[in-house]
């Protein structure tokens, strides 16, 4: 198809749909598919696997500590920005790292497939940490590639497409793992799911190096300073940076604390693997897609600040729906409503919040800064889940536990409301966009 033919075809579409047919947003979709599946492998899927092997709740929730590897990824994100891989570097900095990180994820998931939690929890912990490290490294490259491939006007659409892909990858991998494990075993399930790393690797070869990739000019302080310190210093030199970081830390605590315990609730309520696959994964998948569409409309109609605020409100209230499910007991309709509400709200937030976080990045330090932002976004919730969730559920019961997660979500919501009133939200995004477009001494 020629450029003229493609342009003519797009011109006949409604204006709101045209951006979704452009190459960069489509690429963001496939990047999201590969980004989502490692999370599923060590998240809900591993929770179900461990529960079915008879592992106790405190030990299962302690496995959430593996997600802290994602929260530490900013420590080595500078490697992705600055280190050239032998031989592969000829394909470009981002392309070479996407191929390398994808291969690393495949190897780690295959290794997790071969361990048996009932025989050795220590080996399972090591394998889980390897998947977390490989997945976090994959995320670093994928996020940088996505942001640098999208033009500023495409950030909202691209964030939505990325979230579509993330949900497709995590939901399909989770559903396939459940179905295959039910018919064969968990070893085969994980081996099959390792193939979900391939879409991002194909995209890298298809699109090539991102057009907006920027390399910071070297300073007199040396390569170590430029790669590790300067990305952080640039962020913290901004007015209001501490408040922005505080919001990033607080906004998702309640959501993370609740989400990582849903499978424990479903298991205790007596749902089977097939029921979880249908109601949790199936309904959740379509609800999330609807939420992403709504998020795109809200972002366009309400603007960045107000759309983020409304998404925070909705995400806080979803936790109460699981308190209601726990109170009423096993019900397919109740599970569908709770999962549907939660995933619609998460889809909305996936567009609006991710677009805001992407706008905060200086293109000279995309990998390092987005790694810092995305890692900080869930670190408190993951620590709380690993350290407290199992004990809180046993002490409070599920109903009061989910009510508590609603209360915990309020501080981040109120802080963002204040940031809007003070103008900090718009200033923080505008500041980063000006820096990335007009900073002296940068080059392609």
Please describe what this structure looks like.
The protein is globular. 78% of the residues lie in helices and 1% in strands. The chain has helices at 3-11, 23-42, 44-52, 57-62, 68-71, 74-82, 93-114, 121-149, 155-183, 186-193, 198-207, 223-236, 241-250, 253-259, 262-269, 273-302, 304-328, 332-359, 366-376, 379-422, 424-438, and strands spanning 215-216, 442-443. Strands 1-2 form a two-stranded antiparallel sheet. The chain has one domain (24-212, 225-435): Up-down Bundle (Growth Hormone, Chain: A). It has 444 residues and is an all-alpha fold. Helix 2 runs antiparallel to helix 8 and helix 9 crosses helix 18 (332-359). The model is unreliable at 435-444 (pLDDT under 50).
Question: Could you give a quick summary of the protein structure above?
Answer:
With 444 residues, the protein is mainly α.
Low-confidence runs (pLDDT<50, min 5 residues)? Answer: 435-444
The amount of beta strand, in percent, is: under 5%
What number of domains?
1
Note the overall shape.
Answer: globular
Along the chain, the helix and strand elements come as HHHHHHHHHHHEHHHHHHHHHHE
| Biggest sheet overview | 2 strands, antiparallel
CATH superfamily: MFS general substrate transporter like domains
The strand count comes to 2
**Helix fraction bin:** over 70%
Compute the separation of the termini in Å: 29 Å
